[in-house]
Amino acid sequence: MGVDVIIEDKRWGALGLEGLASWAVAATLAHLGMVPGDWDVTVLGADDARISVLNEGFRGKAQATNVLSWPSAERAALREGVRPDLPEGDPELGDLALAYETCAREANAGGIAFADHVAHLVVHGTLHLLGYDHLRDGDGDLMEATEIAILGELGIENPYTGDGLGIDGKD
Length: 171
Fold this sequence. Notes:
Number of strands: 4
Strand order of the largest sheet: 1-2-4-3
Distance between the termini: 25 Å
Strand content: 5-15%
Largest sheet: 4 strands, mixed
Shape: globular
Structural class: alpha/beta
Oligomer: single chain
Number of helices: 6
């Protein structure tokens, strides 16, 4: 069990996506009190063209986005701003997909190290797999605070300060 990384765009290999994704997923799960090795997440490292096709097929939006997530089950909390229950049983949490060009462009525009931005997107996507979301204000506040805490544990600065290069609405 663990993180399975599929690299469709070789540029992700140069970044070390396998290690980076494993590190960010493990930090997210550990922060929430889960044993990282007990859960499965698949991460696809693709390009903008592939993400655009996936985004259109699954969300009806024919455009690239930084990260897409497909939880294996619905895990959202019923009440706004409440932490979702931790999953039980099936160890498969779901799948994430990252778009290389979009991620690189965002990191460059925000003056953020590419690896730090990708780690943030993996944390963000993993939280989505666990039922976190940002459609309602209270849920968004909880998700953002959780991301900031996890990233802080990883030594990554708060991405929601400065130029406002957050993720809301992008995944």
